[in-house]
Amino acid sequence: MSRQLGKKLVQWSATRTKSTTEEIVKSLTVPLREHDQPLKVLTPDEKKRAVQLRMKDPKNANDFLQIEQMKGQPPFFDMFMREHTYLRISLTEKCNFRCLYCMPAEGVPLKPKDKMLTNDEVLKLVKLFASHGIDKIRLTGGEPTIRKDIVQIVEGIASTPGIKDVGITTNGLVLPRYLPDLKNAGLTKINISIDSLEREKFAKMTRRDGFDKVWKSIELARSYFRKVKLNVVVIRHQNENEIVDFVNLTRDRNLDVRFIEFMPFGGNEFKNTQFFGYREMLSLIVEKFGEEVIRLSDSPNDTTKAYKIEGYQGQFGFITSMTDHFCNTCNRLRITADGNLKVCLHGNSEVSLRDKIRGGDTDEQLSEIIQKAVNNKKARHAGMDALKNLPNRPMILIGDQSTIHISPLGHLSSSSLHFSHLVPSSHFSSIQLRHYSTTPAVYSNSSVLTHVDNNGRATQVDVSNKSITIRTAVAKGTIILTPEISLQISQNTIKKGDVLTVAKIASILGAKQVANLIPLCHPIRLDFVDTVFEHDLKNAQLHCISTAKCGGNTGVEMEALTACTIALLTVYDMCKAISQKMVLSNIHLVHKSGGKTTFNIDYENQI
């Protein structure tokens, strides 16, 4: 990385007074141009032409020519022309730690061994992805060193044509017994997770007493690699007071300390009060080191904003998934330990490559499935408040604590993604009623309407024999505002009052009235209703996500949809005195679970 570029950002003339912490932090947090520009979604024809132009560009021609000559497959581009060259593979769901941010205290249900990818299946997928231009592989978990064939897997990946880098993210607990063989097998990069330098706090955060062994692994890794990366998840009131201590480690060590913003995932009980953003982290460092903090130059695909202290051997950085996303240049895909492809860490759509391999699909068919999934990748993931209410795997079941991109597509059922969810709706010539089965990759028409009897008369469904389970539904919608209304909502100056608070309360009240409004709906005792908003000031749009839950024998889809609709209608009502040129748009169900079927759609969290 360029030290000179970073220095310029904090270089002050001799006549200038000493800068304040706020001024220095501001100068050190200028976003990359690539991260700041809006993405344009292309039509299939536009994308085809764009790929052809990219391959003809002299800057890229040699790379693409090498790919085609060696393997004959095009790179995986999404509909925003992001090329994917980096694949993260989770090797196991098991872990010998129980980190607070990664796994629920009670643990997670593990799938049987025969549901996990085998060594041969992992290497088959690596070879396939490499044929499409993937040149960097990172192995994650769970804890990848639990996998007994880890050395053989690394050796197989490193020997795959086209693969340039093989990395691993590990907690380091048992790393010393494997590290020499891993290095000899072709391991080129290593990340070790360590969230505290205090033994007792380390045990509290990992729920295991392993600090000494992890530190030994870090020191050992430094002797094998030019640079060792340390992953530190920062949680307020837990370890933010150690940030400067971690930076001091880089004084005379070849370490790259990466501070990671705490992110909401299934089961980690994320709370806003625990969040500690990267600018707060940087402020603590600047308060200690002042203008000795140097901003290093990042490449567009870097997930870390890199810095160092003047004269220090190592460096540090921030992974800012929540406060300053880097989705614009995302080049990463993920495969879970049970063989599901994910195109976004915070997405919940998944497609089972394992089932396709075991079902006899050819490489060509697999490539087509992967490309369809990549085509469905959204421009960006949702904001922090929305993510708290969106279902996703616990981090332990996705893999890799190092970045925000835990899994690239999302989750539909335990192992499948129906093709209708992979292809944009604009590709369908007509709307059809569909039945979504929980059987992997099954997709069928149905002429049966549950609220109609054999004579075609409306009737209420008898749910008395249905099992009582935890039912969840999520609905999403948008209200398109005028610029003036959008501004006043953001400034909370609407004369009728606090628009978002009133809309939230109205949505909860509305969800409770569904059975009184819609004749064939059952009265339900709701356990939870919540509505969150994301305000897109630039485009004068307000996005709403409503979640409903209950323990019962019938679903809560109508409650979620009603809550979302009432919230948006309330916004309209409170703002219509300014202008009636508002439009309610795209109210739809995006998730349903807990009943006979599981349903997800349009769920890469692009809000």
Automatic annotation (TrEMBL):
This is Radical SAM core domain-containing protein. InterPro entries: Aldolase_TIM, Elp3/MiaA/NifB-like_rSAM, MoaA, MoaA-like, MoaA_NifB_PqqE_Fe-S-bd_CS, MoaA_twitch, MoaC, MoaC_bact/euk. One of its GO terms (molecular function) is GTP 3',8'-cyclase activity. It comes from Caenorhabditis latens. SMART domains: Elp3. It comes from the Eukaryota. It holds the Pfam family Mob_synth_C. Residues 79-295 form the Radical SAM core domain. In the N-terminal section; belongs to the radical SAM superfamily. MoaA family. In the C-terminal section; belongs to the MoaC family. Keywords: 4Fe-4S, GTP-binding, Iron, Iron-sulfur, Lyase, Metal-binding, Molybdenum cofactor biosynthesis, Nucleotide-binding, S-adenosyl-L-methionine. SUPFAM superfamilies: Molybdenum cofactor biosynthesis protein C, MoaC (SSF55040), Radical SAM enzymes (SSF102114). The keyword RNA-binding does not apply. Gene3D superfamilies: Aldolase class I (3.20.20.70), Molybdopterin cofactor biosynthesis C (MoaC) domain (3.30.70.640). CDD domains: MoaC_PE, Radical_SAM, Twitch_MoaA. One of its GO terms (biological process) is Mo-molybdopterin cofactor biosynthetic process. Pathway: Cofactor biosynthesis; molybdopterin biosynthesis. It catalyses: (8S)-3',8-cyclo-7,8-dihydroguanosine 5'-triphosphate = cyclic pyranopterin phosphate + diphosphate; GTP + AH2 + S-adenosyl-L-methionine = (8S)-3',8-cyclo-7,8-dihydroguanosine 5'-triphosphate + 5'-deoxyadenosine + L-methionine + A + H(+). Its cofactor is [4Fe-4S] cluster.
